[in-house]
Design a protein that fits this description.
Layout (H helix, E strand, L loop, with lengths): L7 H13 L4 E3 H8 L3 H13 L3 E5 L2 E4 L2 H4 L10 H8 L3 E3 L1 H7 L9 E6 L7 E3 L2 E7 L8 E6 L2 E6 L1 H10 L6 H11 L5 H10 L3 H14 L3 H12 L6 E2 L9 E3 L4 E3 L8
Parallel strand pairs: 5-7, 10-12
Antiparallel strand pairs: 1-3, 2-3, 4-5, 6-7, 8-9, 11-12
Amino acid sequence: MNKAPVSYNYIEDYLNKIRSKGGFFFTYHELIQAFGVTPEAIDQALHRLKSRNFIAQVKKGYYVILTPVYSAQGMLPPNLFIDDLMKSLGKQYYIGLLSAAALYGASHQQPLEYFVVTERPSIRSIKKGKLVINFLIKKEWPVNSIMKNKSEAGYINVSSPELTALDLFYYSNVISSNRAFTILQELQEEMKPTDLGKIAFDYPQTSAIQRLGYILEKKLNKVKLAAPLYKAISARKSYYVPLSPAKNKKGATDSRWKIIINTEMEGDL
């Protein structure tokens, strides 16, 4: 059976069907398979749709369908397409750090960047206009601390409040200590000692547990939240670590958490 010839309207009708089913995402390969025509014909159709702000390219071969609300911005919020994108790439993932914290209401300032934790091999950051999607690598996969969060496009994977807090102090090359502290001031309200203890037991980055525990106990006076973290590091070998890895590793020390206090925590709240 011959497939219908490709035309501008035919492509648009196809994409409208995707939208009618609640989808926002499609791939170049998907169009080639659907219409069975030359890449040149697909390229021309996509060019026309992009010029109308009907679609936007996320990365090579991956596109989103722009609704009228987001047409002027030229891109969709990542929550609407990130799950489809990561499935197309065949990658495990979860929304983390500031992006996860924002979903829990812990965002004093709306972050301009989007953070996705995934597995190796690494993925290049996506920069499209004002949108920046950062992909961070994690070797050990915390399957029991990844939640399902409902979005307009379906469900997305999000780190639990407890995993989010630990990651904030693990990816210290991405998030500054003061910024992490500001987020933690709000995120702590969503955290539970029992859940924090469960994840801390398996969390491999001991230094992140030390930093989080020290701040919860000594700076935020959250003794009950800090207790399971202290229990976790007491069961493993630990060394003195700087509170801020980005600063000079000199300062007073806290022997309980083995922290070198080389910075003062200053939140924006």
